[in-house]
């Protein structure tokens, strides 16, 4: 009997303990559920509060949704202004800028790849004057350009320390570009020409590029020159394979493999080229280092760099002649110079057709549109004959 009672009491104790554990577990689960519910409610309250605050902030700050950007307008991150297509394509009235040569050539090498322009484009002649300083024949050129505004652009490269005193009425006013020192027969001459081309390329309307010097004069009126140049299928740059010491004799073996002796060419420094070839010149980084290192006097780089490079890549686009007449008949390193006593009606009349040539693969009686080399004393008789001979 005692054993039975003991077993019953032990079983009762076990059942009580089990019941207590079950109650404790149920209470824990209930507490956990309450905690989760409280966290969920707190999250919902916070989310709703943030949403309400955001709506009031938008109303308070009057934030507007971004409108779509017009196709011809860019937003500048620097000045928060707008840059229209017109401001991008319109050339500046003053050609002065703060770019160095590296920056300038990089900027000028940019060219739209679409052939159709999204604006009315009137092709212009870019006249590039390579000078030491003053322009002794400026009055004659003023007559040449008069009445043809919108069909030409002017760029002048003078020595860095030269300060012009031109009046505002002059076509040369504020047309002097940032320059560097130039030495005859050295690479600095071609660098000045590339600098002129690069500045002229910044104007998208410039289609033809004419290089002249301060001793050059026009032989025909502007209308004739514009028609002659714009109507040509070719660019006017000499590119001859010349034997002898002044031709192939100037070639140096160090130019290989980029340039071989058979590719070496010679031509006049004074040229007229189309826009596509001007771009080839300013973006060249392959042939320029070779000429700079190996073509030094008596190799005169201005007679070889452009003719060689362009004939290698674009021979079919070259007329292989210049438009600028020069007299080399007296020999020497420089052409003949003509002064006041040399300027006669007969002399000027013979210059345009002084040499037989082809124009668009047909024989032409007019081969030259410009002439050099003239002394400042020639200005007076040239002005007297301009209306009669030059049609100005």
From TrEMBL:
Keywords: Glycoprotein, Glycosyltransferase, Membrane, Transferase, Transmembrane, Transmembrane helix. The keyword Electron transport does not apply. InterPro entries: BC10-like (IPR044174), Glyco_trans_14 (IPR003406). It is found in: Membrane. One of its GO terms (cellular component) is membrane. One of its GO terms (molecular function) is glycosyltransferase activity. The chain crosses the membrane at residues 36-58. The keyword Membrane applies. It is a single-pass type II membrane protein. It holds the Pfam family Branch. This is Core-2/I-branching beta-1,6-N-acetylglucosaminyltransferase family protein. The lineage of its organism: Eukaryota, Viridiplantae, Streptophyta, Embryophyta, Tracheophyta.
């Amino acid at each position: 009997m005692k054993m039975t009672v003991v077993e019953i009491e032990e079983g009762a104790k076990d059942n009580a303990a089990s019941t207590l554990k079950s109650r404790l577990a149920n209470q824990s689960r209930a507490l956990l559920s309450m905690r989760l519910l409280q966290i969920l409610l707190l999250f919902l309250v916070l989310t709703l509060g943030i949403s309400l605050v955001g709506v009031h902030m938008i109303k308070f700050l009057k934030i507007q949704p971004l409108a779509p950007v017009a196709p011809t307008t860019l937003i500048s991150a620097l000045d928060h202004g707008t840059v229209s297509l017109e401001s991008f394509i319109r050339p500046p009235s003053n050609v002065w800028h703060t770019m160095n040569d590296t920056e300038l050539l990089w900027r000028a090498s940019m060219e739209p790849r679409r052939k159709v322009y999204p604006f009315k484009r009137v092709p212009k002649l870019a006249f590039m004057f390579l000078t030491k300083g003053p322009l002794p024949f400026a009055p004659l050129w003023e007559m040449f350009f008069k009445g043809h505004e919108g069909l030409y652009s002017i760029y002048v490269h003078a020595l860095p320390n030269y300060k012009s005193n031109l009046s505002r009425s002059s076509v040369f006013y504020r047309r002097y570009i940032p320059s560097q020192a130039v030495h005859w027969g050295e690479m600095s001459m071609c660098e000045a020409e590339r600098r002129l081309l690069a500045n002229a390329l910044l104007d998208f309307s410039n289609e033809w590029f004419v290089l002249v010097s301060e001793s050059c004069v026009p032989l025909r009126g502007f209308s004739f020159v514009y028609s002659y140049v714009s109507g040509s299928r070719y660019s006017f740059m000499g590119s001859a394979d010349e034997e002898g010491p002044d031709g192939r004799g100037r070639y140096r073996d160090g130019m290989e493999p980029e340039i071989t002796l058979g590719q070496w060419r010679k031509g006049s420094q004074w040229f007229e080229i189309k826009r596509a070839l001007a771009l080839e010149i300013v973006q060249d980084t392959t042939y320029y280092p070779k000429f700079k290192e190996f073509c030094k006097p008596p190799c005169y780089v201005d007679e070889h760099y452009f003719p060689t490079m362009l004939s290698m890549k674009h021979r079919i686009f070259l007329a292989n002649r210049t438009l600028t007449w020069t007299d080399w008949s007296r020999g020497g390193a420089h052409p003949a110079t003509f002064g006041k006593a040399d300027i006669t009606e007969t002399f000027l009349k013979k210059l345009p057709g002084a040499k037989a040539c082809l124009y668009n693969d047909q024989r032409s009686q007019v081969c030259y549109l410009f002439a050099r080399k003239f002394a400042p004393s020639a200005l007076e008789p040239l002005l007297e004959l301009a209306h009669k001979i030059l049609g100005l």
